[in-house]
Amino acid sequence: MSALLEMAGVRKTYATGAVAVEALRGVDLTVDEGDFVAIVGPSGSGKSTLMHIIGCLDVPTQGRYALGGEDVSSMTEAQLADVRNRRIGFVFQQFNLLPSMTAERNVALPLMYAGVPRAERAQRAREALERVGLGDRTHHRPGELSGGQQQRVSVARALVTNPTLILADEPTGNLDSRSTTDVLGLFHALHDAGRTIVLITHEAEVAAEARRVVRITDGLLTEETPAHAAGAPVAKGGTP
Amino acid sequence: MSWAETFRIAAEALLGRRMRSLLTMLGILIGIAAVMLTVGLGEGARLEITREINRLGSNLLIVMPGSTSGSSPLAGATSLTMDDARTLADPSVAPDIAGVAPMMSTRANVQHDAERTTTTVTGTTTDWESVRSRNLVDGRFFTASEYASSEQVVVLGPSTAAALFGDTPPVGGAVVVNGQAFTVVGVLEAVGANALSNDDDLVVLPMTTMAQRLAPPATARTLSAIYVAATDDASISAAHQQISRALVVNHGTTSADQDFSIMTFQALMTAMNTMTGVLTTLLGGLAGISLVVGGIGVMNIMLVSVSERVREIGLRKALGATPALIRRQFLVEAGILGLLGGALGVALGLVGAAILTPALGIEVAVSLPATLLALAVSLTIGLVAGVYPASRAAKLAPIDALRSE
């Protein structure tokens, strides 16, 4: 399998006031195509910063990052916007759906920035909604949907462009256990269909769903053996 | 993303906040309406003055006896003579003069049967008709041969004719002026009264007849005024100089103690236009300030809108919107606010013009170019007001935008 995501020596420093905070202190990470990787870590570990850089929402202060063979570490904002549009499907903790638009138009939004004609956009948005099991909710607004349904809409939005990478940032953080199972089931289905998924979470149970788990602590990565692959219990220290 | 798409999103955003959009437009709306009305009123007044002057003859100069600058204005009250009129009519002396109408006027009693009236009786030459640009509704003006042989014929002003003859046709009828019998040969077309004179209530007759029959002997040889028509509007100042030079020579005076004065309607028109122009600019400028205030209102609301929609902007950027597209989005929104405000302002201005025109008695002139200009100005104001908020939105970092709750 070829590497979809390659990160070498990535550092990110924020200047907050007089103090410079180093959120990432030399991260090396390679994610192969078709992989399902969970990035775990407590808050303040640099997890969000890593997610922003993987998602091309921010650029590293130092180091190299290539996505699908394209070096994105020195791109302009407009070029980054294009890469995000073509290559990445985002799933956010807060869903980030536009409340005034129907589910169908929310899902079609990235296609608009890709320059897809309107009729085709609607068609593809409906197909994506059917794939997440919301074929009958296309004309509902986010306010008329449950949290789990809203997150499924945003998953549909993430996959409607056929992106190389689906990047989920705490996708189950705002969901009850039933909806969590629902959404994780969707990720498994997408993974089985050959999608590459990077999932950022602080919940060990969620991370356990992934094929590979990477832990971030104080801006540095350590590889972990997934609990289920090793046949060990899911929660650390939770078993007798 | 297509422009149509940008417009659709902008329209949705504005319709989603209908009340606020309307209130935002109000400043520009009122500003445009106010500018339209003040400028329209000024333009209407200018047109009115121009019409009035053109009616009197914009190429007309009036030479009057007596100096306006000398120490004793009455000193030269009898200075103008037929000699002067003949000099001015000579093309080699005054090439820019097209016509000369010397006038000898007096108040007199005019009578037809039992009807009598007192009016201005003017003796003049046949040129009077063209110099004063008058037309006849009935009959004809007196002829050169009637002038030469001092025939007792008169031409009546329309008011005078109506007063004396009522419904009977006056042409061919007889009138008595100061005891002398005259035949009516024509009736002038009405031009309306103005501040200077009532040009509809008068009796016109050959000056030769006037001098022989009606004028008191002491004034039989002096003119009360000479009306001079310049060849066109552009040659008025040339004609003015030629008259001045010729009469100074005729009277043997110098230009410092000249015993006549020359008045032009064009000078009057220029003065009045300058005055209305200044007033219009002043009032229009005041109204223009409200446009600027309206623009600031648009900028203010756009800034509020940007900070309210930080999450939306962040999401759009995450999904692939470039900074340029975000900027365009907000610029179009501000532009629509400006243009729509301007369009509503034009509508209000048109309604206001329709109400004010009859109420004030002065036409509020609304022209198509001025209307288009108003729309262009309001669009520009909207766009300019949108530049800063739009670039703020474009510069938002997607992560900061997504993070904000």
Automatic annotation (TrEMBL), chain A:
<keyword id="KW-0813">Transport</keyword>
<dbReference type="InterPro" id="IPR027417">
    <property type="entry name" value="P-loop_NTPase"/>
</dbReference>
<keyword id="KW-0547">Nucleotide-binding</keyword>
<dbReference type="Pfam" id="PF00005">
    <property type="entry name" value="ABC_tran"/>
</dbReference>
<protein>
    <submittedName>
        <fullName>ABC transporter ATP-binding protein</fullName>
    </submittedName>
</protein>
<keyword id="KW-0067">ATP-binding</keyword>
<dbReference type="InterPro" id="IPR003593">
    <property type="entry name" value="AAA+_ATPase"/>
</dbReference>
<feature type="domain" description="ABC transporter">
    <location>
        <begin position="5"/>
        <end position="238"/>
    </location>
</feature>
<dbReference type="InterPro" id="IPR015854">
    <property type="entry name" value="ABC_transpr_LolD-like"/>
</dbReference>
<dbReference type="InterPro" id="IPR017911">
    <property type="entry name" value="MacB-like_ATP-bd"/>
</dbReference>
<dbReference type="InterPro" id="IPR017871">
    <property type="entry name" value="ABC_transporter-like_CS"/>
</dbReference>
<dbReference type="InterPro" id="IPR003439">
    <property type="entry name" value="ABC_transporter-like_ATP-bd"/>
</dbReference>
<dbReference type="GO" id="GO:0005524">
    <property type="term" value="F:ATP binding"/>
</dbReference>
From TrEMBL, chain B:
<comment type="similarity">
    <text>Belongs to the ABC-4 integral membrane protein family.</text>
</comment>
<keyword id="KW-0812">Transmembrane</keyword>
<feature type="transmembrane region" description="Helical">
    <location>
        <begin position="366"/>
        <end position="388"/>
    </location>
</feature>
<keyword id="KW-1133">Transmembrane helix</keyword>
<dbReference type="InterPro" id="IPR025857">
    <property type="entry name" value="MacB_PCD"/>
</dbReference>
<keyword id="KW-0472">Membrane</keyword>
<dbReference type="InterPro" id="IPR003838">
    <property type="entry name" value="ABC3_permease_C"/>
</dbReference>
<keyword id="KW-1003">Cell membrane</keyword>
<feature type="domain" description="MacB-like periplasmic core">
    <location>
        <begin position="21"/>
        <end position="245"/>
    </location>
</feature>
<dbReference type="Pfam" id="PF12704">
    <property type="entry name" value="MacB_PCD"/>
</dbReference>
<dbReference type="Pfam" id="PF02687">
    <property type="entry name" value="FtsX"/>
</dbReference>
<feature type="domain" description="ABC3 transporter permease C-terminal">
    <location>
        <begin position="286"/>
        <end position="398"/>
    </location>
</feature>
<feature type="transmembrane region" description="Helical">
    <location>
        <begin position="282"/>
        <end position="306"/>
    </location>
</feature>
<protein>
    <submittedName>
        <fullName>ABC transporter permease</fullName>
    </submittedName>
</protein>
<feature type="transmembrane region" description="Helical">
    <location>
        <begin position="336"/>
        <end position="360"/>
    </location>
</feature>
<dbReference type="InterPro" id="IPR050250">
    <property type="entry name" value="Macrolide_Exporter_MacB"/>
</dbReference>
<feature type="transmembrane region" description="Helical">
    <location>
        <begin position="21"/>
        <end position="41"/>
    </location>
</feature>
